[in-house]
């Protein structure tokens, strides 16, 4: 679908001449463009309201989070950055709704930094994990955000959704995925561990990012230091383990999320160590039980994302954007192979965690 992005430019309080806007990034959900103007650049995004069904609440969360972090950065006179929203020209809201009902937002482009889909060095892993730890720390005193996507990281609910998709088999794909279904169901008990502990009052709700793919941290091209956490759409109440677990999922394997050659998929222990050290260097608010569960969270969230990809495949690829037939099944298989690799190293992960967390 083509959009008149020069018209969208005019809807925001950007006092700079429009030059061009081109697709940008590798996100699965929203439509993202880098908008170049005569003297500066911006990111413009059309929110996917099929996924984010309460866009006004989402953008209010976005506004509150970025404003809160900006206050923290200003107080400490840090060179860290946060995303800076541009208000709509007509009403000052943090979004613009066009005549077709599309919701758009605009924020300043962060120059001199880039993301990595696959981390190349342990130092990059350390920097990214410390950025997410600092992000959680910055928001520890923020009043509760709106839960814009209920049960987003509720693994038992995700498992139930898979069970429903299996029973319905609306696309006739169940016969292709018997091995994947068996793999998941043999680990069903793991899906309840964190939610049960939270229900028992042993794990505290925090403000979390909830989508800590390592390409959601901008790393300075020259400094190689973490500059800014991005992609804040799922920032809402959650458990810190969801964030750390997704760092393990996306930061420890040298393979792409949709790699078809599963021999390339595996958890690099050195990357896990860098992530753990980076995260714990900033996440000072964690209690002993929260720290103890960090290695397990890597397995759980990788399993959960595998469940989500498998569910979407059975339902006809209605959630995640796909580029080829079987794309979500490829993604699922990659996650499950990574779960196996994490399981094989879990004892060593726990031992390392104990040595760092208790130091």
List the helices and strands and how they pair.
Elements: H1 5-11, E1 18-23, E2 31-37, E3 41-46, H2 55-76, E4 96-97, E5 103-108, E6 113-114, H3 122-138, H4 155-168, H5 178-185, H6 193-199, E7 206-208, E8 217-220, E9 226-229, E10 236-238, H7 240-251, H8 269-280, H9 288-292, H10 294-315, H11 327-357
Antiparallel strand pairs: 1-2, 2-3, 3-5, 4-5, 6-8, 7-10, 8-9
Features:
359 residues; alpha+beta; 5-stranded antiparallel β-sheet; 3-stranded antiparallel β-sheet; globular
* Distance linking N and C termini: 54 Å
What is the quaternary state of this protein? single chain
What's the helix count?
Answer: 11
Radius of gyration: 20 Å
* Poorly predicted segments: none
Strand content: 5-15%
Q: Strand sequence of the main sheet, in spatial order?
A: 1-2-3-5-4
User: In one word, what is the shape?
Assistant: globular
Number of DSSP-assigned strands: 10
Helix percent band? 40-55%
What structural class results from the helix and strand content?
alpha+beta
Order of helices and strands: HEEEHEEEHHHHEEEEHHHHH
């Amino acid at each position: 679908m083509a959009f008149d992005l020069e018209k969208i430019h005019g809807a925001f309080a950007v006092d700079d001449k429009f030059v061009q806007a081109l697709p940008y990034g590798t996100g699965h959900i929203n439509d993202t463009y880098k908008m170049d103007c005569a003297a500066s650049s911006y990111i413009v995004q059309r929110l996917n309201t099929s996924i984010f069904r309460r866009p006004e609440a989402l953008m209010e969360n976005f506004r509150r989070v970025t404003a809160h972090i900006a206050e923290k950065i200003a107080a400490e006179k840090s060179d860290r950055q946060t995303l800076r929203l541009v208000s709509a020209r007509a009403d000052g809201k943090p979004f613009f709704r066009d005549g077709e009902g599309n919701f758009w937002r605009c924020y300043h482009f962060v120059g001199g930094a880039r993301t990595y889909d696959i981390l190349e060095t342990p130092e990059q892993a350390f920097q990214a994990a410390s950025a997410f730890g600092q992000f959680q720390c910055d928001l520890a005193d923020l009043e509760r955000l709106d839960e814009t996507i209920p049960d987003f990281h509720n693994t038992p609910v995700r498992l139930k959704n898979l069970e429903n998709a299996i029973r319905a088999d609306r696309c006739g794909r169940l016969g292709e995925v018997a091995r994947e279904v068996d793999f998941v169901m043999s680990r069903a008990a793991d899906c309840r561990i964190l939610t049960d502990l939270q229900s028992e009052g042993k794990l505290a709700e925090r403000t979390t990012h909830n989508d800590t793919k390592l390409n959601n941290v901008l790393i300075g091209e020259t400094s190689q230091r973490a500059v800014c956490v991005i992609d804040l759409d799922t920032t809402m109440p959650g458990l810190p383990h969801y964030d750390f677990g997704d760092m393990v999922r996306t930061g420890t394997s040298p393979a792409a999320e949709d790699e078809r050659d599963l021999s390339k998929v595996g958890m690099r222990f050195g990357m896990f160590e860098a992530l753990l050290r980076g995260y714990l260097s900033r996440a000072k608010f964690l209690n002993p039980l929260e720290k103890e569960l960090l290695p397990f969270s890597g397995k759980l969230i990788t399993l959960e994302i595998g469940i989500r990809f498998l569910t979407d495949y059975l339902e006809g690829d209605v959630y995640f954007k796909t580029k080829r037939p079987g794309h979500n099944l490829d993604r699922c298989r990659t996650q499950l192979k990574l779960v196996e690799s994490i399981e094989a190293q879990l004892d060593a992960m726990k031992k390392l965690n104990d040595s760092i967390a208790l130091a």
